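Practice problem 4.
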């Protein structure tokens, strides 16, 4: 069930690993799109705006959780590449303990503060009630988020990108069915969409757990290995917390931007929500390539094969460039039709605003490809703290647009906030990668090893 990414042609390995990840993310975004369609069609534009207004704070909190779990998987990938199975299992055990602790703390804090956060974000009065109902349930489900993402991250670190996809596909189907049941039949409003998301993710996490116990002999953890070890916990925190903070720091800029768009009115919030959902759907390949490079980088660093890092990076960037062109061509030909997935044909102004967002973002997708590919590679190489600064650059760019340009230029400025953030991050990440590779080479030459 495992896959060694330290041997063979990088392009072939990357494609084989990334394609299942892509389909997994596609399933994830598919049910997210269906979720938004159901909310928009069954509950109306105000309900859609309510869910959309929570997007940035959702990304801030849930992104932190996902980032932490991804960071916990990096030492596992490195030990797998180094063929150190005992250390690998100790890292897995300590990751489980830390995930349990973090999930409890995060759940308590976020559920207690979510109403205050929505008020600080200047969420419009006509949608703040439904926004609170939605995001409170999402935050209450943080333990399910940790369960799935930690287990899926560990499975991927062993080179298996297919298994998490299978369970995510099951989760997607459950989510869609529950959306209809809760919203259409039980009349639960936007809260039903949140319940569906949490329940489906919990099912996916439980499936990963039982599958791992049955199929992965390398993960048969002994009683001694299950003991909490401060050393392993510190290493995991050194990887996980910076990755979580990187997501959250990036999201702070999104919160500022969302707050600025909220002041423009519900109509603009609805248009941006619809366009953002579509954009997330089209950017799945970049996330898949990024996750692939995290595992690829981790395993090859663990194996001491520095020369393969650049080979893999070049192959991945080539794939990202080809897809960026194809995605923008699709926008040019079908942006109005795609917008109708979330908006009614009579809402001409909302459709036009959604198109504007898609065009502005689509023409800069290659910059986003570089952000994901290089940042995740740096994290997989073991430099999670350095990758935080990419998030800082993104945050600053979005915050400047939100504080300065949206009040001056309105919605048009908001459409270019993401491209500005991606370009700023790339200006940092490219030289940062060169620095990381050179440091690994120096360590290998001086000490004979790099981790």
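Answer key:
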């Amino acid at each position: 069930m495992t896959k060694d990414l330290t041997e063979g042609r990088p392009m072939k390995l990357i494609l084989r690993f990334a394609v299942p990840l892509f389909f997994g993310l596609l399933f994830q975004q598919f049910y997210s799109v269906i979720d938004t369609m159901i909310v928009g069609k069954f509950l109306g534009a105000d309900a859609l705006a309510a869910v959309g207004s929570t997007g940035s704070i959702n990304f801030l909190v849930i992104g932190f959780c996902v980032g932490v779990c991804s960071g916990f998987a990096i030492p596992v990938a490195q030990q797998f590449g180094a063929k150190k199975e005992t250390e690998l299992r100790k890292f897995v055990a300590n990751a489980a303990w830390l995930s349990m602790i973090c999930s409890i703390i995060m759940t308590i804090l976020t559920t207690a503060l979510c109403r205050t956060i929505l008020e600080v974000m200047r969420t419009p009065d006509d949608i703040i009630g439904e926004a609170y109902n939605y995001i409170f349930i999402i935050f209450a489900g943080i333990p399910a988020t940790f369960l799935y993402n930690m287990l899926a991250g560990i499975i991927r670190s062993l080179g298996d990108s297919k298994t998490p996809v299978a369970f995510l596909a099951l989760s997607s189907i459950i989510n869609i069915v529950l959306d209809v049941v809760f919203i259409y039949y039980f009349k639960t409003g936007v809260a039903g969409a949140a319940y569906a998301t949490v329940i489906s993710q919990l099912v996916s996490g439980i499936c990963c757990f039982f599958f791992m116990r049955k199929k992965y002999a390398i993960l048969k953890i002994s009683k001694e290995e299950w003991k909490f070890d401060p050393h392993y916990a510190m290493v995991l925190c050194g990887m996980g917390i910076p990755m979580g903070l990187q997501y959250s720091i990036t999201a702070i800029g999104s919160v500022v931007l969302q707050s600025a768009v909220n002041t423009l009115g519900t109509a603009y919030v609805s248009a941006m929500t619809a366009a953002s959902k579509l954009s997330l759907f089209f950017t799945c390949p970049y996330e898949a390539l990024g996750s692939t490079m995290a595992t690829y980088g981790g395993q090859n660093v663990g194996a001491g094969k520095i020369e393969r890092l650049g080979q893999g990076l070049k192959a991945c960037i080539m794939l990202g460039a080809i897809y960026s062109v194809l995605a923008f061509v699709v926008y040019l030909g079908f942006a109005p039709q795609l917008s109708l997935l979330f908006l009614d044909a009579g809402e001409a102004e909302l459709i036009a605003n959604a198109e504007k967002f898609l065009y502005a973002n689509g023409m800069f997708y290659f910059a986003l490809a570089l952000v994901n590919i290089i940042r995740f590679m740096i994290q997989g190489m073991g430099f999670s703290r350095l990758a935080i600064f990419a998030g800082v650059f993104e945050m600053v760019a979005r915050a400047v647009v939100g504080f300065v340009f949206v009040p001056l230029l309105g919605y048009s400025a908001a459409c270019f906030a993401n491209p500005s953030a991606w370009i700023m991050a790339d200006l940092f990440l490219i030289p940062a990668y060169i620095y990381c590779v050179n440091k690994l080479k120096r360590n290998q030459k001086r000490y004979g090893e790099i981790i």
